[in-house]
Each structure stands twice: as C-alpha cells, then as structure tokens.
C-alpha cells in the first residue's frame, strides 16, 4: 500500500485582531525546547508562516489523526507566546510580510524582487510513495489534467490585502509568479525529467533543484511524487480528503503506466487555463473537464474524478471516505466559501480570521 505524507503551511496571527504576526522563530524555538519540533515543524520563507510535515502513513485514518495532532501542537506552541495559527492560504487582512533571515531567502528576494516580498501564501503538499523514478515519471505525466480538481476542492484564499479577490484560490495565482511554477509538458522518461530539471538550474534563473515548483514533481528527498497544487485547507478533514484523492490519482496513474496506457495530453496552454478556472470558481461554478477541456459543472467534474480513481480508492478501502468527503464539500462549501459566508455574516475580516483559527483545530 502506498504511503502518504502531508506538509501544511499555517499562518501565524494575533488571536485578538487576526493580524499576521512575524513569530515563526519564537514558535520554532519553543517547539524545539519542548522536544516536539524536530522533524515536524520547519521555518518558511516568511516569518508569519509555520510549516509542519507528517510522517508517512499507510492508513488515511492515521494520516488524518496526525494532521489534527500537528495542528494542535502548532496551536499550543503558538499560544504559549501569544499568537495563534490559522489554516488560511492567504491573509485576509493587510500585511507586510517579513522575509526570514536565511541566505537562500535573501537570494530569492534579490532575484525575484516584489514577487518574493509578497509571497505570503500557504499551501498543502502531498507526498505519495512510488517504486522508482520510472514509475514516478509515468505518474507525473498522467496526473496533469486532474490536478486542477484538487485545487478547486482545496480552494481557501478568497481575500488578499483586505479585499475580496473574486477568486476562490488567489494563492495559486500569486504562486504562479515563480518562474518555475505550474503545469509541465510530458516527460516520457526519468532521463528527460532530470535533464529538464538540470537545464532549468543551469540557466541561473533558479537557485537549485528545490526551486523547481512543478505542480507535481519527483521529490528530491523522498521516493515520492509530490503534488503541490492545493491551498492549505481550512479543515483537517479536507486535507485528509485531498491526500486520499492524491493517493488514488497516483495509484491510478501508475496502473495506467504499467499497462502502457498513453497519458492525456491537452498541452500546457490548456492546463494553465484549467488551473485558472479552478482558482477562479472553485466548486461554485464550472471547471474544465480533464478529459475534454471544456467547461462543465464543478459537481460533475468532481464525480468524474471519483469515477477515475474509484478502483484505486476501493483497493485501499478509501472509496466511501472519498465520496463522503466530496459530498460534504459540494454541500457545505470549500474553505473559500466558508470564509465568504463568515464575511457576509460578520462584515469583518478580523472576525473571519479569528473564526478560522477555531476552524483550524475543529
């Protein structure tokens, strides 16, 4: 059974005002003193962010429990120094992000300018194990048209610098400012994949392989495919759903690769349009159907994804869990819809943030 791990980035905020706070160093220091920081919590580009990584899990129940545990630990450490954590993919309130004191981050600021200074966005990355680079490349090639559906399900960033953006996932639009971000062409073999990555690094536009921000990539550190399209999810159970579907997609793609089934190839230009559509409308309107690249009601596209991965999900005992999770999101809304509902009720972005602090640990 393929293992799955999740990395989540959380926003550090003032518990009373909801304003972002640059306290990641203090939170990390406290976690280290308490003995829970090692191999769990990490610093990120901006000091208003805190990242954690779960251990690989075979059971989705265990993975969900670990996400909940890590969120609670993060909240506990933050609370001890006077701040709180919120699973928000952008800050609804205005913020001037503080870049961490790190040579790598300073290089990025000098290289990319305002794109680095404004890049206070929080994502969710899912690692799914693969047997080899050959299998991993076959998987990456076959995931491409399905990834915008995960982005729509996870969308959790409607507000930016005090305003409603009109998007469900504005984080993904900010993320596209990185020169290496987004969908990829077909690679066909691990040799071609690694050659393309080496050529990108050789340009000097990016610093190293870690800055190859493909929507799905072979991990540098682990024998996994890393899927990088999702907003950090407001609720832990949504993060678990994204991980469940990601494993289903990887297993389905691996089976297609082994069977010699050719990947769908709509081309990078259409994949970019599909990603934009998912960011714009989330689950509230239409998405591009991964098979036809034509506008289709979001609910229909979600069910198309479930049908696509049903055999793999059933083999792992996850099919009913995935169906229930998708039905819940289609009924109750993703994080972006929850945030907008809170704004309509309270007319206060401060209240949106403070309420989302509570949702983060729900």
Automatic annotation (TrEMBL):
Its EC number is 6.3.2.2. Coiled coil: none annotated. GO terms for molecular function: ATP binding; glutamate-cysteine ligase activity. Keywords: ATP-binding, Ligase, Nucleotide-binding. It holds the Pfam family GCS2. The keyword Nucleotide-binding applies. GO terms for biological process: modified amino acid biosynthetic process. InterPro entries: GCL_type2/YbdK_subfam, GCS2, Gln_synth/guanido_kin_cat_dom, YbdK. It catalyses: L-cysteine + L-glutamate + ATP = gamma-L-glutamyl-L-cysteine + ADP + phosphate + H(+). The keyword ATP-binding applies. It is an enzyme of class 6 (ligase). Belongs to the glutamate--cysteine ligase type 2 family. YbdK subfamily. ATP-dependent carboxylate-amine ligase which exhibits weak glutamate--cysteine ligase activity. This is Putative glutamate--cysteine ligase 2. It comes from Streptomyces pilosus.
